[in-house]
């Protein structure tokens, strides 16, 4: 999978610490970095990595389109547009969820 990160994003992505805290303003690429981490977390048989937003609608608006674009060549089957779930060829699953329900 070819994912390009900016130098500051790459530094965070490569950090081996268990907990990482990021203070960043608008246009830093926080969502893109989070989706990259999400894909890495879901890459493997039986692995599930959730992306949770305050609301279901916000998750769809903020991350769904970009996540589909980033994983397009690695779908095991077409993404479920109703459930906002992507199954990867590696055997992992990425569901987007809202914390409101």
Q: If you had to describe this structure to a student in words, what would you say it looks like?
A:
There is one protein chain. The chain is α+β, with helices and mostly antiparallel strands and 101 residues long. It has one domain (7-98). 37% of the residues lie in helices and 12% in strands. It contains 3 helices and 3 strands, in the order ααβαββ. It has helices at residues 7-14, 30-42, 56-71, and strands at residues 51-53, 85-87, 93-98. Strands 1-3-2 form a 3-stranded mixed sheet. α2 (30-42) crosses α3 (56-71).
Lateral strand order in the biggest sheet: 1-3-2
Low-confidence stretches: none
Number of helices: 3
User: Termini, distance in Å?
Assistant: 33 Å
Structural class: alpha+beta
- Helical residues, percent: 25-40%
Gyration radius, in Å:
14 Å
> How many runs of DSSP E, i.e. beta strands?
3
Strand content: 5-15%
Which whole number gives the mean pLDDT? 93
């Amino acid at each position: 999978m070819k994912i390009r990160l900016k130098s500051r994003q790459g530094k965070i992505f490569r950090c081996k610490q268990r907990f990482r805290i990021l203070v960043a303003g608008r246009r830093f690429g926080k969502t893109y970095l989070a989706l990259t981490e999400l894909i890495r977390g879901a890459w493997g048989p039986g692995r599930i990595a959730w992306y949770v937003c305050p609301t279901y609608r916000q998750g769809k608006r903020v991350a769904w389109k970009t996540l589909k674009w980033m994983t397009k060549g690695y779908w095991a089957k077409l993404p479920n547009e109703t459930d906002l779930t992507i199954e990867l060829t590696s055997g992992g699953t990425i569901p987007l969820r809202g914390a409101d329900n």
